[in-house]
Amino acid sequence: MSQQTFFDKIWQAHEIEVADDGQSLMWVDRHFVHEGSFHAFNKLTARSLPVSHPELTFGVADHYVPTRSRSLGDLPLKSQNMIQMLSTNAHEHGIRLFDLHDSRQGIVHVVGPELGLTLPGTFIVCGDSHTSTHGGLGALAFGIGASEVAHVLATQTLWQTKPKQMRITIDGELAEGVTAKDIALHWIGLLGADSARGHAIEYAGSTVSALTIEGRLTLCNLSIEAGGRCGMVAPDEKTLNYLTGKAFAPREDDFIQAGQHWLGLVTDAQATFDREVHINAADIGPTVTWGVSPEEAISVNSPIPDPSHAAHSAKAKQWASSLDYMGLTAGQSLQDVLIDRVFIGSCTNARLEDLRSAAQVLQGRKCVIPGIVSPGSSSVKALAEAEGLDSIFINAGLEWHEAGCSMCVGMNGDLIGPGERCASSTNRNFKGRQGPGARTHLMSPAMVAAAAVTGRITDFRQLPQVDAIQEAAL
Amino acid sequence: MKALTTVTGLVAPMDRSNVDTDMIIPKQFLKSIKRSGFGPNLFDQLRYLDEGQPGQDSSQRPLNPDFPLNQARFAGASILLSRANFGCGSSREHAPWALEDYGFRVVIASSFADIFYNNCFKNGVLPIVVDDGQIERWFKRLDAQVGFTLTVDLPNQQVIDADGNSVAFEVNDFRKHCLVNGLDDIGLTLLEADKIKQYELTHAQQHPWVFGQIK
């Protein structure tokens, strides 16, 4: 048999048929729906079609949910309707729903993995572009549009053209404090926002193997920001350990059988990729975006780029436009940039590990600017509170919220004011993403925490020790 | 879905790369329970000088005079010309809905984000990929010539200018068939029910854990 990539193996296992034009009809193992799915349900209703496999679809309320409280009354009527429609559709079609008052509620791409709904070797789709997150557990997962959501609901299948394949191999040891978020922003900054367009990405190498599962989920989450169809990390013993005992993961003999299968989902030694990229972990430092695309990212210790040094005129024009919107100057030090508020949350960086890293920076320190911490799920929130992380955030001066997408996309009303600058642990820094006229700088949770205590973009590794601060105060 | 075969229309420019879906249709307009009426809010942040809200009468809002869609020479355009990575960002299908509702049936760019590209075909909008050099030539023509039009012939996969010069483009046969005939692929897939059922039985035998704990 010819040598296959890990992606090939999963794709082939889900291919029902291949049409004459090369499109594959793919079986979907897990389908997640959120509040934005009502158009798809309406399409089914209009055609009097049932949901084909309601037991394989899972509803999660996340995009529009209030995070300042669990009261729907805190939301505008239209947002309340979005949440209620999800509930109605789930109930009518027999779909399991993790709603506002369910202890398992959270951001769909946090909930899926932590409940063991996300399994290696499965094919997962959701009407959300950051579905690539689930690839961190060795699943083939990507976002789809409303019409495709309707197609999956009606048939449990999807027509897809097999993408090209790209392997990003990262080797070596990361410097202290450098995270999966930095890896992602680094390579997207290096290669560009459409460098992986039309490709399934496999992340490989010693650096990736060393990442925790949470780190791998973050890395895969950001694949879409370079145009990747999906991002994946082959399952290993860490994956199995993570899934052991998860609510919806297989158990006992089933788990042993599944585990043996999962560990076989690796790229064969002689398998080839359409594109190979090699990155040295030593080249990666804490990375921050300066512009309005995730590709406009640089090391925290670098000056802001000069459009006159851009590779071509279109890029120069783009950089100039970004600088103008962001209110920055070419050559300016990134660490001179003042921040107005911070946000720690999102499907990218709101897992327990992320909250711990931010809390570690904030422990014993005070924030000089306001901000919000929104855990990735109600479960993460409970675990963080059990560890006392909530007290650290609150004592430092940040707001401790409920779980939801919150200020990442601002659909629930958590917005940044026009012209305000936010240090954010999220995934997109597009114009107006966090509110009309809002300026977003993407970075890791620890870097966000450092910005909160200094009021500017700061390399958190250079913060004075807490005991030194306390001595100075005396 | 509205069928599309041949479109002859005025071309409007969106001269930038990485046009994201937040830019195409901002988040505040996603709460509408209808699939129509998004046209007035297409490129809302760029098109108007104020912050748009759902339900607002856009005809009363202050326009940005520098934005091409607000210029008389591009009124009634049905073909949008842009650059690389058009439609990047979120998977919101409201992006092609807004383009179609405005009157754009075709978007031409040097590349498209994958999800957006797929979404277009489901909603009667044809995304056409041509090389950077051709995009640049058309931008120059568009800049120099008021009333620059193109004809898009989907059955023959050609874009033809007023002088008869043609550029070929690629499109998947199944997508083309659906778009030319205004077909929805759910109905076509349901014809494959037996194959799907057979696959499901085999899959459940080979990978029982996929179905186990969720029952």
TrEMBL record, chain A:
Cofactor: [4Fe-4S] cluster
Taxonomic source organism: Reinekea forsetii
The entry's keywords: 4Fe-4S, Amino-acid biosynthesis, Branched-chain amino acid biosynthesis, Iron, Iron-sulfur, Leucine biosynthesis, Lyase, Metal-binding
EC number assigned by the record: 4.2.1.33
SUPFAM superfamilies found in the cross-reference section: Aconitase iron-sulfur domain
Pathway(s) of this molecule: Amino-acid biosynthesis; L-leucine biosynthesis; L-leucine from 3-methyl-2-oxobutanoate: step 2/4
Record InterPro entries: 3-IsopropMal_deHydase_lsu, Acnase/IPM_dHydase_lsu_aba_1/3, Acoase/IPM_deHydtase_lsu_aba, Aconitase_4Fe-4S_BS, Aconitase_4Fe-4S_dom, IPM_dehydratase_rel_enz, IPMI_cat
PANTHER family according to UniProt: 3-ISOPROPYLMALATE DEHYDRATASE, HOMOACONITASE, MITOCHONDRIAL-RELATED
NCBIfam families from the UniProt entry: leuC, PRK05478.1, PRK12466.1
Gene Ontology BP terms: L-leucine biosynthetic process
Summary of subunit composition and partner proteins: Heterodimer of LeuC and LeuD.
Protein name as annotated: 3-isopropylmalate dehydratase
Automatic annotation (TrEMBL), chain B:
A Pfam family the protein falls into: Aconitase_C
Domain of life, source organism: Bacteria
EC numbers, comma separated: 4.2.1.33
Tagged with keyword Amino-acid biosynthesis: yes
Domain Aconitase A/isopropylmalate dehydratase small subunit swivel: from-to ranges: 1-131
InterPro entries assigned: 3-IsopropMal_deHydase_ssu, Aconitase/3IPM_dehydase_swvl, AconitaseA/IPMdHydase_ssu_swvl, IPMI_Swivel, LeuD
Protein name in the entry: 3-isopropylmalate dehydratase small subunit
Species for this entry: Reinekea forsetii
Record lineage: Bacteria, Pseudomonadati, Pseudomonadota, Gammaproteobacteria, Oceanospirillales
